[in-house]
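FW: tagging you since you asked about this chain on Friday. Here's the raw sequence from the shared folder, copied in full. Didn't touch anything.
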Amino acid sequence: MADKDYYQILGLSKGASSDEIKKAYRKLALEHHPDRNKGDKASEAKFKEVTKAYEVLSDPQKKQTYDQYGHSAFEQGAGAGGPFSGAGGPAGGQYGPFTYTYTSGGNMGGFDFGGFSDPFDIFEQFFGGGSPYGRAQRRATYSLAIDFMEAVKGVTKKVTVDGKSQNVKIPAGVDNGQRVRFGTYDVVVEVKPHSRFKREGYDVITEEEISFPQAALGTEIKVETIDGEVKLKIPSGTQPNTVIRLSKKGIRFVNSTNKGDHYVKIKVTIPKNLSSKQKELLREFDGVKKSGWF
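HL: got it, structure written out here
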């Protein structure tokens, strides 16, 4: 499987969304599940193959690493000098409060299993039990809703578990649906969407409107980022839907000092109601343009 593309394994293109990845995995996991194909070694191998591909592509940080480094970042022993160097290796281990594991003969916990609340639910709901990986001790799982900026910056929440009040520290950079492990239970984070900021992995995307003259002549605008306001120079001749990158102005990686980028999509507004003078000037400009001066 070392030379097989994870996207191709799931029958997807590289730009597939998280929902498409989840849907494709569910379909293939059910099709090749050992309980449906008893004694079929090819199906068993395929089941492990699609599960490994899903484990990587369903996690925003792992997906970004795979897109950048490929399979080499997820091979046994690849930790030295790689993107997960010093973190226990991508085949298993703990990165901050997050636990990621994949083995072919034991525990498969620690990552979102196709949208099911428990890694074993996919086997129980569709096959009445019978996980090929055996029954591990279940951990209590709770949901915790936090705001977008709380997820970006990290937050400590006071919760009540089994009648006891305790503090739960959510690290900076967590994304919607990620699972955080605390003692004897797990917390699945639900991040509320932001009215202005759109998140893609560790990158942030916003839109800014400028006028036609500003786009033609160039200007400087103020852009709100997750870390505050910055000035952005708009070059002359900027076209509608131009995207400008603000390097390292995105979201901090979980348990890392690295940060994503902030992308600003430029929208050019065209006035609907023009005065006679404005129309005359535009006709004059259009005539000059057709004459070949530009």
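FW: The two ends are 56 Å apart (CA to CA).
HL: agreed, and Confidence is low (pLDDT under 50) at residues 76-136.
FW: great, closing this out.
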